[in-house]
Amino acid sequence: MTLLWRDSWLKPLSDFDVGAEKCSYCKKAFGKIDFVTACDFCEIGIMHDSCANKHIIASHKKELQRKIDAHKDKPLHDYQ
Ligand SMILES: [Zn+2]
Ligand SMILES: [Zn+2]
Questions:
Q1: Are 64 and 57 within 8 A, CB to CB?
Q2: pLDDT tens digits, residue range 5-22?
Q3: What ligand has the least distance to the C-alpha of 46?
Q4: Domain ranges of the chain
Q5: Strand residue runs (E) in the chain
C-alpha cells in the first residue's frame, strides 16, 4: 500500500505513519496507490483526497468561510 500525501509535494507515507488502512470518511480501504490528506480543522484522521474535500465542505463550512474571508481583503491584482 502506498499512500501519497496531497500537499505542495507528494510525500509517500509508510503504513506506520498512516496508522489506518481505511478512509476516515467513506470507510473504504485505501487502494494500492491513493492520494490522501488530513483535515485542517479536526482530527478525523486520514482520508482520500476527494473525501477530505467533501468532509470539509460538509462539516466545516464556517471555518472554510473564515479562511476565504481572511484572503478576500487582499486584491489579487494591483490594477483591478
Ligand atoms: Zn474515502
Ligand atoms: Zn474535519
A1: yes
A2: 666 556 666 655 556 789
A3: 1
A4: 2-72
A5: 2-6, 10-13, 33-38, 46-48
